DNA sequence: TACCGCCGAGAACGATCGTTCTCTAGACTA
DNA sequence: TAGTCTAGAGAACGATCGTTCTCGGCGGTA
């Protein structure tokens, strides 16, 4: 077996087991058994468990965002659809049998207090998602794309949490509905959203000013 | 030392240490040292660590919701203010030096896959918060209080996650702004929201229908 | 005073885990 | 064929942890 193939098999096993059961609940010996890679090779590829954990998170971040971007690129009928199609993808994810919430939120809750690398990886992931959503939102005629993207990210993380804990994928639909309202409210003009199809709000509103 | 006092001191220590560092990262011996309760007494109060974990979560749930409800009851100038004042409380929480996200999300990420009790406690907490928000929203003239409360819960959990990971308490302000938009959009009439003060949206919109 | 029961301190036990080491078998080379 | 290198299987090591046990001391009682 190649060194590169061993790495891949280890990361595959780690990706499955760490996500399913939590990082600390999976021993190196289980990873050896699940991957078919010997313990010696395992430590040649990853000198310590935290190295494997770090690469697991980095790979998951890249794949998660790539899948999301692919889905949005394929499913959005117009660029204006983009932000809301994100929630459709979330819905399909929530429906997957192995769905168990956000791997980064989980890892952060488990090891964020004791591992800088985990905290960094989680923060990086959330920031990257925010940037992706900001890009999606930028094609819309909105006053403050960064603000709207920040609001949508709240719905994304909130729905992931809700779906993970209650087991109900419908959190994605609720988030989508709320997201559509926020998008409409952030729009600068009514006419510009007329091309957005049935998702566009018929009457955008200005954002209320907080009083507290 | 009383049996009841030992219990209290143990739950105090557990509440602090479990939240700060994660459950698995805190040993029974550390709890003994932090609480000043002997190991023998510790096991008389809590026969196993998971019993202490369960009571830790139950107590935290009760206290967290009580603090939130107290704050809302004291700070909301009108009943219509209630839902948005929730986000003000979140902001003060996010600013606390020991803030490290939602204890239930953290515990779920760490042990949800291997502990039914943790999953139950986390689910119960999130459901109770949803019910509380539903009660707050019910005083507003909205078409579907349950739906609106469900949307606001997404913002609550999303902002907790964002604040925990990025360390920026401003996530609460962004969530509040978004919440105000959702509240306004859910309103049945414009006149009814006129009494809500500066938080009320000047022009409520109807919710767009999802297309996907 | 002698006895009894409870308590705290901490050693001890058994299990698990991350990591390293040993041993053996096979592949490659001169 | 003899020698050398490598890899895999799995034992071993050292540390930690949850839990239990032992021991010595202290308070209450006849």
Automatic annotation (TrEMBL), chains A, B:
Which Pfam families does this one have? TetR_N
InterPro entries of this UniProt entry? Homeodomain-like_sf, HTH_TetR, Tet_transcr_reg_TetR-rel_C_sf
Q: Where is this region: Disordered?
A: 193-212
Where are stretches of biased composition, namely Low complexity?
193-204
> Where does the source fall among the domains of life?
Bacteria
**Could you tell me which residues form the DNA-binding region?**
27-46
Q: Does the keyword Transcription regulation apply?
A: yes
Give the record's keywords alphabetically: DNA-binding, Transcription, Transcription regulation
* Stretches assigned to the HTH tetR-type domain: 4-64
PANTHER family under this entry? HTH-TYPE TRANSCRIPTIONAL REGULATOR YJDC (PTHR47506:SF1), TRANSCRIPTIONAL REGULATORY PROTEIN (PTHR47506)
Q: What is this protein called?
A: TetR/AcrR family transcriptional regulator
Organism expressing this protein natively: Streptomyces gossypii
């Amino acid at each position: 077996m190649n060194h590169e193939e061993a790495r891949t098999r280890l990361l595959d096993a780690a990706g499955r087991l760490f996500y399913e059961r939590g990082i600390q609940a999976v021993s190196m010996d289980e990873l050896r058994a699940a991957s078919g890679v010997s313990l010696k090779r395992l430590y040649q590829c990853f000198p310590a468990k935290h190295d494997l954990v770090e690469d697991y998170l980095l790979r998951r971040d890249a794949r998660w965002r790539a899948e999301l971007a692919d889905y949005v690129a394929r499913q959005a009928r117009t660029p204006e659809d983009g932000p809301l199609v994100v929630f459709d993808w979330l819905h399909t994810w929530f429906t997957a049998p192995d769905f168990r919430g956000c791997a980064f939120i989980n890892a952060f809750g488990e090891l964020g207090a004791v591992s800088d690398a985990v905290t960094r990886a989680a923060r990086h992931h959330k920031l990257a998602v925010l940037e992706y959503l900001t890009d999606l939102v930028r094609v819309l005629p909105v006053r403050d794309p960064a603000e709207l993207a920040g609001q949508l990210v709240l719905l994304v993380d909130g729905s992931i949490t809700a779906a993970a804990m209650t087991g109900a994928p419908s959190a994605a639909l609720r988030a989508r509905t709320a997201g559509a309202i926020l998008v409409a409210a952030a729009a600068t003009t009514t006419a510009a959203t007329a091309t957005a199809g049935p998702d566009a709000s018929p009457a955008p509103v200005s954002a209320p000013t907080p009083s507290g």
